[in-house]
Design a protein that fits this description.
Residues 576-598 have a biased composition (Basic and acidic residues). By secondary structure, the chain is α/β, with parallel strands linked by helices. It has 19 helices and twelve strands. The relative contact order is 0.08. It binds adenosine-5'-triphosphate. Adenosine-5'-triphosphate binds at residues 94, 330, 332, 340, 358, 360-366.
Length: 598
């Protein structure tokens, strides 16, 4: 604030200095010029020069004062936005396209910074200069002053009408550029799918359509802007010409000296910029207001998944995970559908490995997401060692439970940083500071990579320091899954939740991973969503999810014997697996044939 207010004062000082120049001109015209006293002109001319230099200095001071604070405000708002995005639950991210978030974080905040550094200061400064100028004009000649200012009234009326319409168009244009950013982001992300399906042209067509509607909105905006500019330029010109005619007549009648007339017009000329700039600054302020609204759309979103005020703790986790009469439905799920999870009861004993099986779309992934509060249950509870997961801080909860997903996301960082993501205490800084930590980090990394059969990481160009993920080394789906699995294992959780993390592996690698996992899973409770019979074999018991409930729990052979639905699910999984294997061997055969022909 002090810098911004200081900058405002510097700007005001510059403008007031500019307003003082006409006063000196009046002295020159009415004094030395009228009386032919040449030697009196020089000191007054030097005074004008001094005033000009002071004005320039004030301009420089205005800029210098705001650069630091406004860039800091922008950076702090951006950090706050990022922190908020990290804190908001998955359900928020389901609803918000990434481009909208990106355009808020980049262009909206840039606009707010420019407005603070320039728009706000000029707007307040110019309004004050106008008031000061009006007083000076009226004190010079109240008739001319009032005529000049009365002409500004239509400007206020037009400006007021302009505000309402421009705000709406500004909001639309900023939202549309967010949509466009989403589209660019999605097509870059999905470039392989677009190319594989030859949909590049189609994507380009819809991009053009969206870009075109943004263009029309921008044109509408420019039209509104142009309209107000017409008024802003015409009104002062009309006011000046009326005043000129009136002023010359008054001077001829002896009611005004020539010097006063010159000073009046010189002052009016200084006021031209503040008057002209009001329209532009008004539009700029409305853009900034829209950008601020868009920023607070996110900052004010209520976060339904927060830490409790007085958090419980699980001191020595044993790893008992229980679902107690759990109900869940997605926020956007239509009313005519019942709950997706409709009274799930399931208890995983410490150290037990439970496979979760069900038809596609039955809610298995959803059930796993409830364990780490990616979503909150709509009724019932999920507990770890008897403590409701909502009673723990999210940090503590996610220390106890680690997840690996089918769709393995890696960050643009080294293999090491990706795998040790869940172990901040073994992070790079801690390892650099203490050799014992470095050795422990190395051991954990080594073990996790071994269990996940991700030894390939050592053969990458820079070994485990190779950058992977977006912008990094491209890895195959199976390699990414194995690193994501290593990440979950390295977190050393008491409960491991695996959402089909082996789907992209070939059968032999899967078998090796499973053998290694058995050693880890002996101490860890595990909930594994299984899409292959081989994954089911890994489990001590299997839970069958059917129409929102767990309808059977038992060993694989017990369920095969007792549950018709289980037999149906397993046979469809086997069919899927056979199809996948046939496709894989076809591909191999094709490769063999090609090799033979060559
Ligand atoms: N974020 C979401 N918002 C709204 N509905 C969702 C969301 N995620 C999943 N669903 C819906 O919930 C249902 C269950 O999805 P879920 O992914 O849990 O099933 P699943 O049993 O894991 O399926 P699959 O075996 O195919 O992976 C589906 O009908 C799906 O369309």
């Amino acid at each position: 604030m002090p810098a911004i207010v200081g900058s405002m004062f510097a700007y005001l000082a510059a403008q007031l200095i500019a307003l003082a120049v006409p006063q000196v001109l009046e002295q020159i015209v009415d004094g030395p010029l009228a009386h032919g006293e040449r030697d009196q002109v020089v000191p007054l001319a030097l005074l004008v020069f001094g005033l000009g230099a002071a004005e320039a200095a004030m301009f420089a001071l205005r800029r210098w004062l705001v650069i630091g604070p406004t860039t800091k405000i922008e950076a702090r708002m951006r950090n706050a936005l990022y922190a908020r995005l990290q804190d908001l639950p998955v359900s928020f991210h389901d609803r918000w396209p990434s481009g909208q978030l990106l355009s808020r974080a980049v262009s909206d905040l840039g606009l707010i910074r420019r407005w603070l550094a320039f728009g706000l200061i000029l707007l307040v400064g110019n309004l004050l200069v106008l008031v000061a100028g009006a007083v000076i004009l009226i004190s010079m000649s109240w008739v001319l002053g009032i005529v000049f200012l009365a002409c500004a009234v239509p400007l206020w009326i037009v400006g007021y009408r302009f505000e309402g319409r421009y705000s709406e168009v500004a909001r639309r244009s900023q939202d549309q550029s967010g949509d466009l950013a989403t589209m660019v982001e999605e097509s870059v992300h999905g470039i392989r799918v677009l190319k594989a399906f030859g949909r590049g042209k189609h994507a380009l067509r819809s991009f053009r359509e969206q870009a075109e509607s943004l263009r029309s909105t921008e044109i509408e905006k420019a039209r509104l802007d142009a309209n107000i500019w017409v008024w802003i330029l015409i009104v002062p010109a009309v006011a000046l010409s009326i005043c000129l005619a009136l002023g010359v007549w008054m001077a001829s009648q002896g009611q005004l000296s020539v010097g006063q007339l010159v000073a009046f017009f010189a002052t009016a000329a200084v006021l031209a910029w503040p008057i002209e700039s009001i329209g532009f600054l008004l539009a700029f302020s409305l853009d900034a207001r829209t950008a601020t609204d868009r920023f607070f759309d996110i900052m004010d979103t209520e976060n339904e998944i927060t830490d409790p005020e007085r958090a419980a703790a699980v001191e020595r986790p044993r790893g008992e995970l229980a679902f107690n009469d759990v109900h869940f439905r997605y926020q956007d799920s239509p009313d005519r559908f019942g709950d997706l999870l409709d009274g799930v009861d399931l208890v995983l004993q410490p150290g037990e490995t439970m496979a979760l099986v069900g038809l596609t779309g039955s809610g298995k992934t959803t059930m796993t997401a409830l364990t780490t509060r990616l979503y909150d249950v709509t009724d019932g509870s999920v507990t770890i060692d008897g403590v409701d997961v909502r009673a723990l801080t999210r940090d503590e909860l996610r220390r106890h439970i680690a997840m690996a997903f089918e769709d393995a996301t890696l960050f643009s960082a080294s293999v090491r940083d990706n795998v040790l993501l869940g172990r901040p205490e073994l992070g790079r800084e801690a390892a650099d500071a203490d050799p014992a930590v470095a050795a422990e980090a190395e051991r954990v990394l080594d073990e996790a990579l071994r269990i996940a059969q991700a030894g390939f990481a050592y053969d990458l160009p820079d070994g485990v320091d190779t950058k992977v993920g977006e912008e990094g080394m491209s890895l195959s789906g199976g390699q990414r899954q194995r690193l994501a699995l290593a990440r979950a294992v390295a977190a050393k959780p008491s409960v491991l939740v695996l959402d089909d993390p082996l789907s992209a592996l070939d059968v032999a690698t899967e078998a090796r991973v499973e053998a290694e996992l058995r050693t880890v899973l002996a101490e860890t409770t595990a909930l594994i969503v299984a899409h292959r019979p081989s994954t089911v074999m890994l489990a001590d018991r299997v839970a069958l999810l059917e129409e929102g409930r767990i309808t059977a729990v038992g060993t694989h052979s017990e369920l095969l014997r007792e549950s018709e639905h289980y037999r149906y699910v397993i046979s469809s999984l086997e069919e899927d697996e056979r199809r996948a294997e046939a496709e894989a061997s076809d591909r191999l055969l094709d490769d063999d044939r090609k090799e033979a022909i060559r």
